[in-house]
Design brief:
Two copies of one chain form a homodimer. The first copy, chain A, has 456 residues and is mainly α. Chain A is built from 23 helices and six strands. Chain A has three domains: 4-126, MgtE N-terminal fold; 139-245, CBS-domain (Roll), CATH 3.10.580; 268-451, SLC41 divalent cation transporters, integral membrane domain (Tetracycline Repressor, domain 2), CATH 1.10.357.
Amino acid sequence: MIGITEIEVLLNTRDKLGLKETLSGYTPEEIADLLNHLEEEDLLLVFKAIDRETAFAAYELLDINFQIALLDLLPNKLVTLIINDMSPDKRTALFQELDNDMLNKHLKLLTLNERTVALNLLGYPENSIGRLMTPDYIAVRQDWTVSNVLNYIRKYGEDSETLDVIYIIDDRGKLIDDIKVREILLAETNTRIDEIINGRFTSLSVLDDAEVAVNVFSKNNRVALPVIDQNGLLLGIVTMDDVLRLSKQEDTEDIQKLGGVEALEDPYMEVPVPLMVKKRAVWLVVLFLGEMLTASAMTFFEDEIAQAVVLALFVPLIVSSGGNSGSQAATLIIRAMALGEITIRDWWLVLKREIISGFALGVILAIMGFLRIALWNYFTHIYGEHWLGIAFTVSFSLVGIVMWGTLMGSMLPIILKRVGIDPATSSAPFVATLVDVTGLIIYFSFALFFLKGTLL
Amino acid sequence: MIGITEIEVLLNTRDKLGLKETLSGYTPEEIADLLNHLEEEDLLLVFKAIDRETAFAAYELLDINFQIALLDLLPNKLVTLIINDMSPDKRTALFQELDNDMLNKHLKLLTLNERTVALNLLGYPENSIGRLMTPDYIAVRQDWTVSNVLNYIRKYGEDSETLDVIYIIDDRGKLIDDIKVREILLAETNTRIDEIINGRFTSLSVLDDAEVAVNVFSKNNRVALPVIDQNGLLLGIVTMDDVLRLSKQEDTEDIQKLGGVEALEDPYMEVPVPLMVKKRAVWLVVLFLGEMLTASAMTFFEDEIAQAVVLALFVPLIVSSGGNSGSQAATLIIRAMALGEITIRDWWLVLKREIISGFALGVILAIMGFLRIALWNYFTHIYGEHWLGIAFTVSFSLVGIVMWGTLMGSMLPIILKRVGIDPATSSAPFVATLVDVTGLIIYFSFALFFLKGTLL
């Protein structure tokens, strides 16, 4: 690791020579890590103190915000060199964050060749495999020998994103097979490629979404996977590190949605406070509006509360139990759907499981609630002569509400997915709010049933 | 993809020959995918219908539950061959799921060599890099030539997990550098290795936890990373696909904890209902016990509620707003900590951001609450002459409670981490429950302040 304090001293004293010397021993990864922690005005100084090769490699590894900042800070000539040198997938990730003016300006700096590549990749929808693709791979023909292939790699391998896998295509560019480089290295040099291949390969379709790619990668021990179109033509490859980053990002968005926040898109510390307030306010306001219905529901039962204030005492307990069981169910189902463990067609199986679980959980809480009221009343007589009616009201409500919360929490994500909305939208707070209103109605209905003629 | 219905027909008719023929064209990945979807009694039939090489490769790719099932079903002789052939990291993953008897039985089936490897890997703590390591890598010396290295790979490369990167060690086994295989392929055959290496490499420490590995991988474009001990000795490598799986699994556990469920450890559909009820009941009961304090708090203010039933009407609204803002803050902070965006030392920065955010969010809800009461009262006079006091009580409470929820939600994960507990334990429901009780106290305190002498 680079000693950041040491660098800071050199930066403060503007000691360019010292900076150059100190930084010369570091890897592009370490340099990128350092740059990601610097203030904007220091970026340029560090960037200029490192050799060109390291600088270019480090640039690709920078957070996109810093890449954009440097596009503005660096002289046009250097920018031209950098973006022409970037790997197409990283460049696509950068370009899709630029506004239209910036994008056009930088597209013009690319050579015709690179511009075609960039425009092509940008044509695929966001979060699709297409955006993650790189056309830098090695493709060979099946009638070549191992020695041909090795020579070809030596000549053209420089640009390739990964040399772990080599692709075999026919004259029309259709993918016939992929082969691990190890198999080529392990073979005799005069072996023909079609003697090694077996026609079995795993590929992604350019129309697949990113979640599919993540699943395929975690099941196949591959560094990269080929991407084909509907006719089987090889369009490019996607590498595992890009998928890992995208997967982390999608998980983060899911988690934030589950917590009832719009996805932040940037690291917590980098999101300006006003933007963060906005992202949180949206859902908080929606939930607040929904929760206002509880005030209406309570108003509806105002007379009952006035007659038996004791009923009001258990409202938060009842309401939150429904919310908690709903959160649990929603979280489990949303995650299981994201991982592909459950599909919409499984709704009936899920429903059966959740009815049983919800009932069991409800009974557990009901027993605890009953004991709580019975014991308190035994020692303090706080609930008076009608304590049994109150205890029954609370217990039966708990069974009903926990089951209702569990059902809502488990079915809502499936319904949302069915109508084409991200299931993670039915966040824990969202389900809790929905359950709160109905929970009150269930509670007061049981109260009317058990306490009519006594307390009510 | 394999047509599952076709296979099912063959399985039902016990048509072994047809099965053999149909399955012969498929990759180990496809076979594993098929096996993962079969009933236990059909596993064996399919497994025996495929050639040994494919069967062994498919076994490694199976879900661990199915691997364990097959250990029981297959003859001992075949089990011996399979587990000796497995890559050490996959075998460690399988072995750590076995109970002690099963483990000892299967350790005995390993050759002395493989047993040493297995026991060594099992010695590292769960979820540590050590458990994910494989000793199957290529290590060479710096005085070798490219041609030496290529010959060495051809001879010993078969067992290596990945040939994308080659490691250079000194005579004591200390890691000096790693080098991408492409650089070797691109170099002239008589170049010495020490002419190519630059002494810059990224490595993991065997004591690192898995989350660190995930971070390092997503920042470095590598298929595998070397793992060293405190003295820099090369112990093994970890590959990216293992890290991807572990990362998914840890994210799932985090998400489940955030939703207030003990981590399920297995896919939703595979967890027996009683076990699932148990995993959910633990937290639900803890939360219920905590939430019982709301009943106590409400009892404490019973006289005030009896005097002004209108106060009870807003309890669910007030309480849930605190819970929702707490859930948001907890989710954001827990995720940011898991991704390494925030460390414990940042608590002061987080606190400042959250105080501002919480205040802003509270004011937004307070204004909405005020308008709700003012408008309703304008049209229906439902809140009587003291509506302004009620409106102020609700509005000020909302500011207080949302700020309180935000602070608790953001600081609790940091405090838990500080004392060595997984921050994700402070789940959304957990924070909501904590905030509920204090929320009631805040609410009734404001009520006493604004309504003393009028309603109260």
